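Work Package 4 report. The design task specified in the project plan requires that, given a folded chain encoded as structure tokens, an amino acid be chosen for each position. We show below one input record used in the internal validation round.
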């Protein structure tokens, strides 16, 4: 049964078929934001607040400019604002948070067709923009439970480097599995592995993410990481580094694919491209770069009745590929 909130928001919203995903994203985003505030304090709360308010303001401005309904777009804008905040480090400048909200909502979400015909994932695209607009700022992480000012507790000390990349390069001599699961390692605000896994399960159960796509993406990435990193520990840490990108930005569109073959192909390519970025540049943000690169393919799969059988010779179409 639908809750009162779901029924209220869906009333008169026949042009917004993705409300369930937006509603689920709100729940997941709030939980992850609460964990970020617990670990990083009031600055995390301020970043989340700025991101959500600016995203909503940008959406209202665009809706008024385009003369379309405002209410139906508020919850999706809030979801984008939450994800924007969660995939950033707590040390990010407030100005970057504001710019990310404008780029993701006003440009990527509206100009490029919104969620239904999404060509570039709004949050991943905004992060890619910040990566070049604020060089180095996305790769400075602070320890959990920091004392202000945050600049006194950044890790690595005074260097511009990826945290997970540093662990991989150093042979993973820092941290352990319980810390990794609990999110006690300095990383993006929504990087708690245990909560990300719980979010993934909720998304799959609610059919917001294809389980086939995740298994293909996670399996291919883990396998390549195992070979490239030289061991199980490196592969586990690398996968933990890209899970937020996969779950929050790259995989949600996979539930709209019309065939299993499309889901598996997209998942394998996502894992492959993520691997190339992570192990070549030693950077966990490779997951978001991969999401942006594969966005046109995901949009094609989501908006076309694509099926691998259709491009195979007649004799091979009898195989159950999708």
């Amino acid at each position: 049964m639908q809750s009162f909130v779901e029924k209220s928001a869906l009333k008169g919203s026949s042009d917004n078929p993705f409300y369930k995903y937006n509603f689920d994203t709100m729940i997941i985003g709030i939980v992850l934001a609460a964990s970020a505030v617990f670990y990083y304090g009031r600055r995390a709360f301020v970043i989340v607040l700025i991101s959500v308010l600016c995203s909503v303001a940008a959406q209202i401005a665009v809706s008024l400019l385009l003369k379309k309904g405002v209410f139906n777009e508020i919850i999706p804008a809030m979801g984008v604002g939450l994800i924007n905040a969660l995939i950033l480090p707590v040390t990010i400048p407030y100005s970057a948070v504001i710019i990310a909200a404008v780029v993701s909502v006003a440009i990527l979400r509206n100009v490029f067709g919104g969620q239904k015909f999404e060509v570039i994932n709004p949050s991943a695209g905004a992060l890619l923009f910040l990566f070049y607009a604020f060089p180095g700022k996305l790769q400075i992480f602070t320890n959990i439970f920091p004392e202000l000012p945050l600049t006194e507790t950044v890790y690595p000390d005074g260097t511009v480097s990826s945290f997970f990349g540093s662990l991989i390069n150093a042979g993973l001599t820092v941290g352990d599995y319980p810390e990794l699961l609990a999110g006690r390692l300095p990383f993006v605000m929504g990087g708690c592995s245990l909560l990300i896994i719980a979010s993934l399960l909720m998304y799959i159960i609610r059919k917001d993410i294809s389980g086939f796509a995740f298994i293909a993406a996670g399996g291919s990435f883990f396998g390549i990481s195992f070979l490239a990193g030289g061991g199980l520990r490196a592969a586990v840490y690398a996968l933990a580094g890209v899970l937020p990108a996969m779950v929050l930005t790259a995989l949600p569109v996979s539930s709209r694919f019309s065939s299993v073959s499309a889901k598996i192909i997209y998942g394998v390519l996502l894992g492959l491209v993520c691997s190339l970025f992570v192990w070549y540049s030693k950077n966990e943000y490779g997951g978001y770069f991969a999401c942006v690169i594969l966005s046109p393919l995901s949009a094609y799969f989501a908006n076309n009745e694509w099926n691998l059988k259709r491009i195979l010779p007649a004799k091979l179409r009898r195989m159950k590929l999708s």
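The beta strands are 141-142, 154-155. Validation will be extended to a larger panel in the next phase.
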